[in-house]
Amino acid sequence: MLWLVALAGAVWLSSSRFVVAPGFEFYLGPLFYLVAYRWFGVRWGLVTAALTMAPSVLWWGHGYSVMLAVGHVLAVAWSR
């Protein structure tokens, strides 16, 4: 049950943009899916990447950022 609450919190935080200055923003999606990859392995890293980056489909209307996140996890796993 705790992991479900943590995942919901991660999706909520990763769907928020933190604007520090014009043109400089923090996006927390990569933090969550790379931590999931490190702690639980490739399978959970890929699932977390897809879930935390899914809100970006509503922002931009395409799934490029989801594919980029999945590719990021796979590139990190391949390089290890």
Span of the ends, CA to CA: 31 Å
Runs with pLDDT <50, length 5+? none
In helices, the fraction of residues equals over 70%
Number-wise, the strands total 2
Mean pLDDT: 85
Spatial strand order of the main sheet: 1-2
- Using the CA coordinates, give the radius of gyration: 13 Å
Instruction: Report the β-strand fraction as a percent range.
Output: 5-15%
- Principal-axis shape: globular
Major β-sheet, in short? 2 strands, antiparallel
Structural class: mainly alpha
Q: Order of helices and strands, N to C? A: HEEHHHH
Q: What's the total helix number?
A: 5
As for the number of domains, it is 1
Question: Would you mind describing this structure in some detail?
Answer:
The protein has 80 residues and is mainly alpha-helical. It has one domain. 74% of the residues lie in helices and 11% in strands. It has 5 helices and 2 strands; from the N terminus they run αββαααα. A two-stranded antiparallel ribbon has the order 1-2. α1 (2-14) crosses α3 and α2 (29-40) runs antiparallel to α3. The longest helix is centred in the C-terminal third of the chain and has 16 residues, at 64-79.
How are the SSEs placed, and which strands pair?
Blueprint: H1 2-14, E1 17-21, E2 24-27, H2 29-40, H3 42-53, H4 55-60, H5 64-79
Antiparallel strand pairs: 1-2
Helix pairs in contact: 1-3, 2-3, 3-5
